[in-house]
Design goal:
Layout (H helix, E strand, L loop, with lengths): L9 E6 L6 H12 L3 E3 L1 H13 L7 H9 L14 H10 L3 H16 L3 E6 L2 H5 L5 E6 L2 H14 L6 H17 L12 E4 L5 H27 L1
Helix pairs in contact: 1-9, 2-3, 2-4, 3-5, 7-8
The structure holds cytidine-5'-diphosphate.
């Protein structure tokens, strides 16, 4: 597939709840199609982490928005951002409207540069890139997601309880889906990819098939319009 043929950047938007596998799928799609990848969760994680480190209350919108406006790409390199705690902090700062507004331009500029990009998050297909070429909503049952996250944390040597992780995943789903600004939901034109019964390889293969199908259709429509 030739991204230039469509004359528009190939933008792949991946959204979905915690631990559904969207990060892995997004990174592999980016590699496969030769596109840069932005894990947008890192932006919210960095803001939450900076606030906690400096002793600020993460529920303070004004401070969170000021940090968002001054976020430096180097802030995204902190290895602690990948951790479970940073995810919890992220979902608390992510409810603030002014925090989200401060991050829109950075994400859109990343997506708009040729030849395109893969972005993963919660509101990529709905708010950040409503015109993305391909939108995939990656999901899985809460139980399966909790099982994966528990395995992941245990593999890192953490003594963690499955039922605690399941409760946290459920409350994070609830917070992300019910917030007033940019709630987690599938875009109307997103393809849903349920990974509950799929291993990593099968989920990736399915994602590639969706991209080829949807981007192929988009290229055809663009060609017909140009003809
Ligand atoms: O995959 P996981 O949910 O563990 O991590 P993440 O994608 O880094 O997201 C962490 C939190 O950041 C989510 O629970 C959301 O509240 C928030 N987030 C968001 O609101 N919008 C995004 N585009 C990305 C993340």
């Amino acid at each position: 597939m030739d991204a230039e043929a469509g004359r528009k950047p190939l933008v792949i938007a991946i959204d979905g709840p915690a631990a559904a596998g969207k990060g892995t799928i997004a990174a592999r799609l980016a590699e496969h199609f030769g596109l840069p990848h932005l894990d947008t969760g890192l932006l919210y994680r960095a803001i939450g982490r900076i606030m906690a480190d400096r002793g600020f209350d993460v529920d303070n919108e004004e401070i969170a928005a000021a940090i968002a406006e001054n976020l430096d790409p180097d802030d995204l390199r902190d290895p602690r951002l990948r951790g479970h705690e940073a995810g919890e902090l992220a979902s608390r700062v992510a409810v603030h409207r002014n925090v989200r507004a401060a991050l829109v331009r950075f994400q859109r500029e990343f997506a708009g540069r040729p030849p395109g990009a893969v972005l993963d998050g919660r509101d990529i297909g709905t708010v950040i890139c409503p015109d993305a070429t391909v939108k995939i909503f990656v999901t899985a049952s809460a139980e399966e997601r909790a099982r994966r996250r528990t395995d992941e944390l245990r593999a890192k040597g953490r003594d963690i309880d499955y039922s605690r992780i399941l409760a946290e995943i459920r409350s994070r789903d609830e917070r992300d889906s019910s917030r007033a600004t940019a709630p987690l939901k599938a875009a109307e034109d997103a393809a849903t990819l349920d990974t509950s019964e799929l291993d990593r390889e099968a989920a990736f293969a399915e994602a590639v098939a969706i991209v080829l199908r949807v981007a192929g259709q988009a290229a055809q429509t663009a060609a017909v319009r140009r003809a």
